[in-house]
Write a structure and sequence with these properties.
Layout: E1 2-6, H1 14-27, E2 31-34, H2 39-42, H3 52-63, E3 67-71, H4 79-84, H5 111-128, E4 134-138, H6 151-165, H7 168-175, H8 203-231, E5 236-238, E6 240-241, H9 250-253, E7 261-264, H10 281-291, E8 295-300, H11 319-329, E9 332-337, H12 363-374, E10 385-386, E11 390-394, H13 396-404, H14 413-426, E12 431-435, E13 445-448, H15 456-467, E14 471-475, H16 497-500, E15 502-519, E16 524-536, E17 540-545, E18 554-561, E19 564-569, E20 571-572, H17 575-588, E21 601-607, E22 612-618, E23 624-634, E24 639-646, E25 651-655
Parallel strand pairs: 1-2, 1-9, 2-3, 3-4, 4-5, 6-7, 7-8, 8-9, 11-12, 11-13, 13-14, 14-19
Antiparallel strand pairs: 10-21, 15-16, 15-17, 16-20, 17-18, 18-19, 21-22, 22-25, 23-24, 23-25
Helix pairs in contact: 5-8, 8-13, 11-12, 14-17
Bound molecules: alpha-D-galactopyranose and zinc ion (ZN).
Length: 656
Amino acid sequence: MRIGVDYYPEQWDKSLWRKDAELMAETGVSIVRLAEFAWSRLEPEEGSFDFSWLDEAVQIFSENGIEVVLCTPTNCPPLWLYEKHPEIIQTGADGRRIQIGIRGHRCINSSVFLEYAKRITDEMTRHYSGNSSVIAWQIDNELEAYPCCCEECRADFRNWLIEKYGTVDNINKAFGNSVWSGEYSSITQIQPPSAYPKAWQNPALCLDYWRFTSGCTAEYVRLLSSVIRKNCPGIQITTNTWFCENMPDLYDMFSELDFVSYDNYPPVRIPKNPDEFYSHAFHLDFMRGIKQQNFWIMEQLSGLTGSWAPMAPTPRPGQIKGYALQAIAHGADTVVHFRWRTAITGAEMHWHGILDHSGALNRRYSEFRELCKILPKLEPVNGAEIYSETAILYSPESECAFKIQPQTDGFYYLEQMKYFHAAFTKYGANIDVISSEADLSRYKIVIAPSLYVNNEQVTKKLKRYVSEGGTLVMTCRSGVKDENNNCIMDALPAVFKELVGAEVVEYDPIGWSEQSVAANDGKAFSCKQWCDVLKLNTAESLAEYADSFYKGAPAVTVNKYGRGTAYYIGTVGKMDFYEDFAGKIMEQCGLSKLDGLPTGTEITTRTDGECDYIFIFNNSENDVEINLPETMYSLMDSADKEKVKLKPFEMDVLRK
Ligand code: GLA
Ligand code: ZN
């Protein structure tokens, strides 16, 4: 287990490096990430490389017993490179090159850029090959599926389409180009979706363009990782990721990397309304689910955030320590904090690190130090894994298609997943968030909200999963689109109709307004956004709409399919609905369940096969008390306990 910091030696006077390294070592920092954006210092002139300053920094950290993660500085090409080769700059949808002067402006498909990126990566990795202080490499920074429209990207996209469809005719068919005289008569007419207004573009073209750009990002990662592997065989390689607008397919992007690393900035304000509260734990489980293995945090919240946006409130007492431990509870064994010192220059001077601008040892530093001192106690948990009986399925293609065509006001693909995640969390269950394409055999319950774009393999797998005894939950906007993002000519949920034993007679996108649903057991719930008016085939109704012209029509159904059970929720509820629903299906499926946990309590269990380590986190602003079912040993307090008392954002870890 390691706690680390991100450090930018190139931004500080050399006289600080050693002082910083010594304080870090004394604090308990054991890993540091360097050189993330430092291309202009590493290759100040074309072809002339200077690693001397970085050598010195690496040496200083190594003398202080601190290991190093190095980065390819490829996010920030130096200005001389842009000047010499303006063609490497990304081009926007308007056909104009974007303005340089900040960061991340290179086109990752530009063959010229790729030559320079490979060269700096090659030089750097050869230089540090065999340096035992360098234990991992990070490729670039927060890569996206960049919607670049430069000439090279346009040409590559055309080739990609021809490769996929064979002929222009097939592309016309796949995209349904007879609409609005959109038929291509020649390959040269194919353009990325850059027309305005964006919402009027062909959704089939848009989805394929995303597949292309996402694939390019994954290809870029593979290219740089192959250079690193050639020069540093056996080294661990990652790239740091986050939830961004142009999300690439993360399953693909990480497929050949050794581990996932995530930039974790949980919000510090806890909303009063439970419907607005989604624990950041959802994102952590999502990150663990990418490779279905433990992961790293490469940037962890260390202070108040701001820079391009006005500053947000400062982390409350307990959050610096608590949110790092929360990441560990969900499978992170290394947590690197962004950043050691707050920048005093540049655009990010208001995105705070551990130390403020003054460098004084402040409140956050003290808490960070406590965190570092706790880590040795958690050593037994290092490498222990999380096993879940419940999985939530995520489809990058469906998410992209929902971004292309928003369904109704307020509808957001991840929202239902977050509701379900929070609902299972309420009962102390481990939850995986995994690719819709992943193997499901180990799960008792699978939640697949709004599987919108059909993938035949996934559809078959889900049917098999249920027929062999699994419990599946599907929701509205499933089975709507075929692989090309065109509508399927069938009653919804089309390919899942037989599986859920019900079909949609009509639907009502009610957006922000709220209606109600009456459940068979007498409970009433609010619903919002979307109402599928259902007709039962083989399914039974569990709840009915209580108002509107479809009052009395089924809203939630259950169907026996083979040896298993498929639920369908035709609408979007609020937190109380999902809690009630999750509680019931957990009982039906025989999952163990804790009742009456205080609000905000999050329990996850990591196991090494011999012992279970139970993390109990108080993600709330109130003190809580939890009675344990039996006496357990607390790694935090090195004592047996029958009861856990936690202050706001405090964590306990118990051994069973
Ligand atoms: C991201 C980036 C960092 C930094 C932080 C905070 O996560 O990876 O380089 O910009 O945001 O601003
Ligand atoms: Zn481009």
